[in-house]
Amino acid sequence: MRVTGTYERSSVSGEEVSAFLPNPLPPQGPPLDLDTEARRLLEGATEALRRLDLAVGMLPSVSWFVYAYVRKEAVLSSQIEGTQATLLDLLTFEAREDLDPEIEPDVDVEEICNYLEAVNHARAELGRSDGLPLSMRLLNECHERLLSGARGANGMPGELRKSQVWIGGTRPANAVFVPPPHHALPDLHSALERYIHSDDGLPPLVRIALIHVQFETIHPYLDGNGRIGRLLVHLLLEQYGLLGQPVLYLSLYFKRHRAEYYRRLDAVRTAGDWESWVSFFLEGTVATALDAVETASTLVTRIAADRSRLLAAKSTTVAALRLFELLPDHPVLTIPRAADLLTTSRPTASSAITLLTKAGILTETTGRKRDRIFRYEAYLERLGAGTEVGE
Ligand SMILES: Nc1ncnc2c1ncn2[C@@H]1O[C@H](COP(=O)(O)OP(=O)(O)OP(=O)(O)O)[C@@H](O)[C@H]1O
Ligand SMILES: [Mg+2]
Q1: Boundaries of CATH 1.10.10.10 in the chain?
Q2: Which of 157, 261, 264, 342 has the fewest CB atoms within 10 Å, measured from its CB?
Q3: Which of 151, 213, 216, 258 best tests ligand 1's pocket when mutated (most atoms within 8 Å of CB)?
């Protein structure tokens, strides 16, 4: 059996605790063995990502999908932690925030907004020639954004933990897994950073799978390790050139297969079983990427059909058509927001919205006379926005 690390024993309140110190990547003695099945999965995953990249590249406006998909991943990743908000809650909040910048999100929506800020920060840094490279420092900055606000405060935002944590059980002594002692974190991080920027000849997608486990095993923060570790996967997909845009919502797969996700992580540590983890990760990539390709193409079809209908309608105005083209970026809208986007008066925006509503494209959702909120339902439905996505 492969050994993936060593244990450091210590005594906590008179009880013996064994903290796990993972060996540096890549897996050694024996090296990672990608059998025929794994190679087939790898090919499938690479092909699925290529198709997804193409599907996105073919769109008239990439931002349509990136806007929605980054938000979908943010919602899904936060739902694993137990946040209840849906994509629709997030989009509705964003529409209302446009109306009134003072408005405060509820804690669940705030958590998702924080995740979005973390993603945007990382991508902005990585995209700038003088920005931070993919490093622990960058992840710490993301963590700071992720855990800002009331709920995150106890997780030491932006800081590595200074105490022992454990997973499963009520205290370190009876835990399923005790991550490395905090004094080991600096060395573990430099080794992980070195690995991220090295080339060991393994396929990039496989390397991403290994890096995710290593990150979760190191468990550098008091809280938020799962979310930052999933964010890391997305940053790596771009860094390694596998996807040009963040349009893979892999968290859906981890969420649906949560028990197996944890079991596979455990098996790497306890049985040295990297291979099963890699297969699980690749299966998830194939399923999620194909799902996204499918969603992208049904959305394109739907948008095209709605556009033709609008063009064919007698009363259609230029403002209505222009507003329609903005909907995929702003699927939840208020009249002031529409006026803003069209740089026009509120009455003009209002009649454009009325036209889109009559054409069956927009639906008013509040039932109120004032502060009304309109949604592009067909689009949101296809994104699975109203429910716990994918369930
Ligand atoms: N047995 C395990 N071995 C290694 N890592 C594990 C194990 N069980 C869970 N994890 C990781 O720990 C994460 C949870 O840690 P933490 O609570 O710090 O993160 P989070 O972002 O707050 O939560 P969540 O991942 O549930 O959204 C899980 O998502 C998983 O990646
Ligand atoms: Mg947590």
Answers
A1: 313-382
A2: 342
A3: 216
DSSP state of 177: B
What angle separates helix 185-196 from helix 136-146, to the nearest 10 degrees? 110
Q: How confident is the model at residue 112 (pLDDT cuts 50, 70, 90)?
A: very high
CB contact at 8 A, 375 and 332: yes
60 pLDDT above the threshold of 80: no
Measured CA to CA, the distance from residue 339 to residue 316 in angstroms comes to 17
Ligand 1 pocket check for 81: Cβ under 6 Å: yes
Q: List b or e across 351-379, with b for residues whose CB sees 16 or more CB atoms inside 10 angstroms.
A: bbbbbbeebebbeeeeeeeeebbbbbbbb
Structural contact between residues 329 and 303, judged by C-beta atoms closer than 8 angstroms:
no
Q: Which two tokens stand for residue 352?
A: 């454009």
Measured from the Cβ of residue 162, the count of other Cβ atoms closer than 10 Å reads 10
First to last CA, the chain: 38
Helix (H) or strand (E) holding 301: helix 274-312
Pick the CATH number of 5-23+56-294 from 3.40.50.12780, 3.90.1150.10, 3.30.70.270, 1.10.3290.10: 1.10.3290.10
- Intervals of CATH 1.10.3290.10 along the chain: 5-23+56-294
Q: Measured from the CA of 80, which atom of ligand 1 is nearest?
A: 27
pLDDT band at residue 295 using 50, 70 and 90 as cut-offs: confident
pLDDT above 90 covers what percent of the chain?
71
Q: Whose alpha carbon is nearest atom 4 of ligand 1? A: 217
Residue 20 has pLDDT above 90, yes or no: yes
- Give the nearest ligand 1 atom to 263 CA: 1
Query: CATH number of the domain at 313-382, out of 1.10.10.10, 1.20.120.1200, 3.30.43.10, 3.40.50.300?
Result: 1.10.10.10
Q: Which ligand is closest to the CA of 229, given by its number?
A: 1
